[in-house]
Design goal:
The protein is α/β, with parallel strands linked by helices. The protein has one domain: 2-Layer Sandwich (Nucleotidyltransferase, domain 5), CATH 3.30.420. Helix content is 47%, strand content 14%. A 5-stranded mixed β-sheet has the order 3-2-1-4-5, with helices on both faces. The longest helix is centred in the C-terminal third of the chain and has 25 residues.
């Protein structure tokens, strides 16, 4: 169960796709197979593609990270709580910012500088692993992020099993086999938006079509959903009172209302509409 709620929390999510360079380097492909779409198709075929599952999950080490999003909760020195929705790349029209080394490097640098309590869904086995793998492959340096105390209880440790600094909601709420829920299954039954117009299987095709903006938007949706589910679990665990939990949800709504007015975040209106719909449905059915 959740042991604590730290003064700075980042509920985060990442999106990745098969890396065409990995395909060229590791697969014995004919020279005629040179386009990213062709290389990805060959990687999926080698990964066990079927007619029912044409784009199977590949090892994370074979994939490149294209987007990272996080919703930050921070307790200010005066005791007030501030929320911030962050995503990388900041400017999808800048080729330099969209490079994987920039996306991964900036996130690792920010983690090392701010040392937040991380909250994810399948983050221990998936997101954290690909972050480290790609950081090594890209030749990045992340000394502050990697810093560990002599003993886990003596400081911030993102790597110790059961560490309160890397809360994996799937690990806390899941189990084995049929017991393991998806983020979508947990969220929608809790009155929280899950998957909407995009799901993870579409990310690679969106990237091939040059739709990085839609990927970042989808990534932000998942980060918000992860945060709202964490709030619900933290309330369940007693870290927020009933009134406090209501206030925390209102802070998220206020954040989305502010951010949706920005030209690059009008998509958050869709999230608010779906949130309202689900809350009404679940409230009426469980009244």
């Amino acid at each position: 169960m959740i042991k604590s709620v730290q003064s700075r929390v980042w509920a985060f999510d990442m999106e990745w796709i098969p890396d065409p360079l990995a395909g060229r380097l590791l697969y014995d492909l004919p020279e005629a197979v040179s386009e990213p779409a062709e290389i990805m198709q060959a990687m999926w075929q080698a990964g066990g593609a079927t007619s029912e599952n044409p784009t199977p999950f590949l090892k994370t080490v074979l994939c490149r990270i294209v987007s990272i999003a996080a919703l930050e909760r921070r307790v200010l020195p005066n005791g007030q709580v501030a929320l911030n929705l962050m995503s990388l790349p900041h400017n999808i029209d800048d080729p330099e910012e969209t490079r994987e080394s920039q996306v991964v490097g900036k996130f690792l640098d920010a983690l090392g500088e701010h040392r937040p309590q991380l909250v994810g869904f399948n983050s221990i086995q998936s997101d954290l692993k690909i972050l480290i793998q790609r950081g090594v492959i890209l030749g990045l340096r992340a000394e502050d992020f990697c810093r560990r105390p002599e003993k886990p209880w003596e400081g911030i440790d993102y790597f110790a099993r059961g560490s309160e600094w890397n809360v994996d909601l799937k690990d806390v709420l899941g189990g084995w086999g049929m017991v393991v829920p998806s983020l979508h299954q947990l969220a929608v039954q809790s009155g929280i938006p899950g998957k909407m117009d995009v799901d993870g299987n579409q990310v690679a095709q969106l990237w091939l079509e040059g739709e990085l903006r839609r990927i970042v938007q989808y990534n932000e949706f998942d980060a918000i959903t992860t945060y709202l589910l964490w709030l619900r679990l933290a309330h369940f665990a007693g870290h927020f009172t009933n009134d406090g939990y209501v206030a925390e949800q209102q802070r998220v709504r206020d954040l989305l209302e502010r951010e949706r007015k920005q030209a690059t975040r009008t998509h958050l209106e869709l999230y608010l509409e779906e949130w309202d719909r689900l809350r009404k449905v679940t409230a009426s059915e469980r009244a």
